[in-house]
Amino acid sequence: MNKNDLAREIASRMSVTVTMASQLVDTLCAVVGESIRKDESVLLQNFGHFQPWQQKERFGRNPRTGVECPIRKRVSVKFKPGKGLLELLNEKHEDTDICD
């Protein structure tokens, strides 16, 4: 699912226009991104926790040439799924459970 698909799905479920849903998605992404940029974590109850973390400077290797090169330190994001999301992902479906 890409951003446009997400906006269409939100528009359908909320009975709003796709334009309004797209603005909502853009705003959510902007708010989360700005919070993480300010070194703040974002917790969406039952969905998950976005937390910024500093990757240290390290050396990597170019896979084509094998030449070692420095990788600068940078901020990245860790995501820990919430209980509600994990429960949704791990629901048992009788028609799709092939292990039992």
From TrEMBL:
Organism field: Parabacteroides goldsteinii dnLKV18
Keywords of this entry: DNA condensation, DNA-binding
Name of the protein this chain belongs to: HU family DNA-binding protein
In terms of PANTHER family, this protein maps to:
DNA-BINDING PROTEIN HU, DNA-BINDING PROTEIN HU-BETA
One GO CC annotation: cytosol
According to the UniProt entry, its GO molecular function terms are: DNA binding; structural constituent of chromatin
Could you tell me which Pfam families the record lists for this protein?
A: Bac_DNA_binding (PF00216)
Family from the record = Belongs to the bacterial histone-like protein family.
Q: Which BP terms from GO are recorded? A: chromosome condensation
Q: Does the keyword Heme apply?
A: no
- Return the InterPro entries for the record: Hist_DNA-bd, IHF-like_DNA-bd_dom_sf
